Amino acid sequence: MIFDYSYIDKAFINGRIITVNARDDICEAVGIKKNKIVFIGSNEEIKSLIDENTEIIDLKGRAMTPGFIDSHYHPILSGFMNGAIFDATYPKCKSIEDIKELVRERAKVTPKGDWIKLWGYDNNKLVEKRHVTLEDLDAAAPDHPVQCMRTCGHVCIYNTLGLAAGDIKMPEDIKRFGEGEIEVVDGKFTGLTRDLSAFYLWSKVKYTDEELREAIERANKVCLEGGITSVHDCGECDAPAYSMMFKAARNGWFKPRQFMMLHSIFGKPFSKEDNEHFLNLGFHTGLGNQRFRIGSCKFMVDGGSSGPTMATREPYSHNPDLPRILSWEREEVASYIDYINKHDCQATAHAEGDLAVEFMVEGYEKALKNYYRKPEEHRHRIEHCVIVDDDLIQRMKIMGIIPVANTHFIPLNGSDYHRYFGERINYLFALRSFIDAGLKPAIGCDAPTAMCDAIAGLDGAVNRIDRGTGEICGPEQRISMLEAIRCYTINGAYASFEDDIKGSIEIGKLADFTVFSDDILAIDPVDIVKTKVDYTIIDGEICYKRGEN
Hints:
6-stranded mixed beta sheet, globular, 8-stranded parallel beta sheet, alpha/beta, 18 helices, 31% helix
């Protein structure tokens, strides 16, 4: 028996307590005092610490884990869905006509000249098997600028007024942007924009403080229902978001703990300005408290995986002519990583394709040669890290780089990935290879691209099944349920320099827990999708209980 106090405030008994400590111990009972874990042991041993004031929660054989940490999330962007941004995901929108009808209905109640905003359509799932076009959106709302973001967040369709908001009015205006970023066919705009151009136009879309607050509260609800007790916020709509997320932590609008990266979804110049202002003031990663900390200095090297627009070394298997977008050049990446590293901060970047990952790995090698820091000191990361190979993994291992995988994407897009990348799917979100190499991969949903849901992330990591088609995608990269839990808990805490206070169920750590409806180590892993989150507990407080929220 291990304990620090003679009595406890809450006792969790009859559980399958998955501690994720160094020995992967599993026990029956946990006791907490205020917001800390003070007892781990058996049902019999905890009895002596229970008095008339102790609240007893009978887990009835259910699994309790450390609170799940989503290591790549966009709370405000996610919360905009069904609020400031209309939800155009499948199956809500199964056709172009469904999208046009959504726009028409919104136009009826939106003042002329104000933005209409949608997110989530998937051209692969629409009946027409094509992207929305400028003409589609102009027909539905000729008097409003319209933004219609693809589910990946890297391809966006704007109508005529939407493009004009960024002073894009004639085909020759695309010369201001990178090759392939704004699509022109037969001398006319299609409305399709990619990556930096899409983000630049996004900066012209305005959100009110009320919309931000509502988005945060909506995201809070989704996180708690999904079993998430901490998030790494990987970028929002620039300056207002930092203040709003801090207020949300202070005032309780957003319960999960935050590790908020310095990054703007409006693109390269905005993110550089945010990062450089912070670094020039002499601040460091981790500034803050247990509820809200400043996170990594982040930038974005390439495009997305499900469009696809990411920078792969070789052309896409299904369409070799599609542009593979790079927002930063090789030497530019290396120079910027060196700049962040010399300021003793944690660097990370969105790098999905193997060419973009190569840029990051090479940049870290140069930076750490110029100014060496131990892996546990820098904890540099690569967000997404979708396609790799053995050479990149071994080089990451030497430096202790942390890959953050979006396993939620596999149940949604697995078959599309196989079509896009062919045999490269065997090194897509390569958790098995990362773990075998001794790396500490973490898991994040990248919502609103996928739902912020612990079970979906476990499913993608353990089963790698496209739940729409049934196809198994890269089975060599499957990991065990316990390994997936570790990625989602202690590895996430390590990635934010917080493994000393959370990420495992150990004496003295914060009382953050996720409780599932079943013993998730005993069920057939394929059936994880039938499991529910029963409790989400933060600081010893039950923030979500299934059936009561």
